[in-house]
Design brief:
By secondary structure, the protein is an alpha/beta fold.
């Protein structure tokens, strides 16, 4: 069964508006929501940076959607024990509906606490250690942890769900994909060349099999950035104005300030979005775009429309894109 979800971007919209868009998305046929976790927007123009955990609580209370973070980096703004507590609380309140999406993070959001921003290999090691701590706390036992990066002293979660929420990890490299298969319950990635996506899924499945898991039973999740508008020109324009970071084909994890992204955005051209943001006014083209990733083996697709025209996008997808794409209902 395929799940098509709505990607709600806290860096682009006020949380009250995002809550309304998620309700509209549910009415239109989207079955899940992935909510970004940012302290800063990518560019000042995007203009928001709401605290995702507050929004998630409201989302659970006002919809029946399955929902989760896309994604939270543990170990910088949040100690892994606090991430575990937040995730366990949401799953306790909304059993079977919350997932914990984790990632290695970006300096844009994590540099604010003033610590050393590590190199990529260390960021992945920190993520793996964080997952270990979170898993231990989900058992409900009192734990102590003295690791390479983090310490936990006599910690126990008292508010626990009947079953821990699944942990999904966002990755764009083969090494972490294989680790994710071994350690976690599903993989998250973003749109890329087919060859790269096939490699990531292959390594994820290899890791899952090595851990004695059936990889076909694990979610394979992709977030797709699209730009839908009534005309091609409008779709291109909103991508350029609202999501120029989508046209930056280089590593962005070490860039610290929205103003720096704003300066780089001046170099972005429409052709830079090819293969990174799908731009089209044609609903049938959008439908074919989603079907392509279903054929590659993804079981959950979260669609982010980069424009401000969220209500129109949701309506068009609900009427012309989602019908016929088989999805399970929550509850």
């Amino acid at each position: 069964m395929i799940t098509i979800g709505y990607a709600a971007m806290c860096e682009q919209f006020h949380p009250t508006d995002l809550l309304r868009y998620c309700r509209l998305a549910e009415e239109a046929g989207f079955r899940a929501a992935m909510v970004s976790d940012h302290f800063h927007p990518w560019t000042p123009r995007q203009g928001q940076s709401a605290f995702v955990w507050a929004l998630l609580g409201a989302l659970g209370a006002t919809t029946r959607l399955r929902f989760g973070t896309g994604v939270t980096p543990p170990g910088y703004r949040y100690h892994p024990a606090i991430v575990a507590q937040a995730a366990a609380t949401l799953e306790a309140m909304y059993p079977g509906r919350f997932y914990l999406g984790l990632g290695a993070g970006e300096a844009l959001n994590e540099h604010i606490v003033g610590g050393y921003w590590p190199e990529p290999a260390e960021r992945l090691d920190r993520l793996v250690e964080s997952i270990e701590i979170i898993r231990k706390l989900f058992t409900g036992k009192t734990i102590k942890h003295r690791g390479q990066f983090y310490t936990v002293e006599s910690a126990r979660l008292y508010t626990l769900p009947p079953k821990p929420p699944p942990i999904y990890v966002a990755t764009s490299g083969p090494v972490m994909s294989e680790r994710t298969g071994r350690l976690c319950d599903g993989i998250i990635t973003v749109g890329a060349a087919d060859e790269k996506l096939r490699l990531l899924l292959e390594r994820f499945e290899k890791g899952a099999r090595a851990a004695g898991k059936d990889p076909t039973a694990l979610p394979r999740i992709i977030q797709l950035h699209v730009s839908w508008a009534e005309t091609e020109e409008m779709a291109i324009e909103q991508a350029m104005q609202e999501w120029p970071n989508g046209g930056m084909n280089f590593p962005k994890q070490d860039i610290r300030n929205p103003e720096d992204f704003e300066a780089m955005a001046k170099l972005v051209r429409p052709e830079h979005f090819i293969g990174r943001v799908f731009i089209s006014p044609d609903p049938e083209a959008h439908r074919a775009h989603l079907e392509h990733f279903i054929a590659l083996g993804f079981t959950e697709i979260y669609v982010h429309n980069v424009g401000r025209n969220q209500e129109e996008f949701i309506r068009v997808y609900g009427e012309k894109v989602l019908p016929g794409l088989v999805q399970p209902r929550v509850g």
